[in-house]
Amino acid sequence: MTTLLAIDTSTEACSVALLHKGEFTHFDEFAQRTHTKRILPMIDEILTQSGIQLNQLDALVFGRGPGSFTGVRVGAGIAQGLALGADLPVIAISNLTTMAQQAYEQYGAEQVLCAIDARMNEVYFSQLRAEKVRLENTEFMQWQELINEQVCSPLQALAQLQDIPAEHWITVGTGWNAYAEFSVAGLGENTQIHLPSARYMLSLALPYYHQKQWISAVEIEPVYLRNEVTWKKLPGRE
Fold this sequence. Notes:
Layout: E1 4-8, E2 13-20, E3 23-30, H1 35-50, E4 59-63, H2 69-86, E5 90-93, H3 95-107, E6 111-117, E7 123-135, E8 138-152, H4 154-160, E9 170-172, H5 175-178, H6 180-183, E10 189-190, H7 198-210
Parallel strand pairs: 1-4, 4-5, 6-9, 9-10
Antiparallel strand pairs: 1-2, 2-3, 6-7, 7-8
Helix pairs in contact: 3-7
């Protein structure tokens, strides 16, 4: 059976998940600004509980973003270090699609609007629709991007959704409650899915693994979406 470890530090959530002997185990913590302290102990704990070593994994899965610059960078760096040390293939998973997968598994949703608060009056945003595919006699969900992942203002997001019947969609992510523009738009059905969990990255990673669609540790590339962040330099550091 396939054994996969997933990690994610891209948002305020810090999470690890393990698929071993057909069973899922996961730890999720709200660990804002403490990801670097928590992620490795969480990995050690989940592997120890399952009685396996890192080099017994078939592949390593990680949340490649979008999310906070620091969080995405931490996750990519940890994944690269672990994969290099144990000579593991890597599967990179979108944090937005991860929440859509959770919505499918918990609510049966196949049409999902995703928005994570990106601060500075912007959200990480995408619109996804699920399609069922069969692989090796197993059914998986494959997510199609109707609106590609992007960072944009709430108004820009809404402008792209103006022709969508609201009742057909559900929303996931912190972005929907963060901005007043969304609250008055009456978009779809709200869920309690606010942040991505590594548990659902495993569901997304399985078909990639079976089709050998992985990368090496040196090919890891975080996805920030926001390439430039405006910030005020300290005096004397211009």
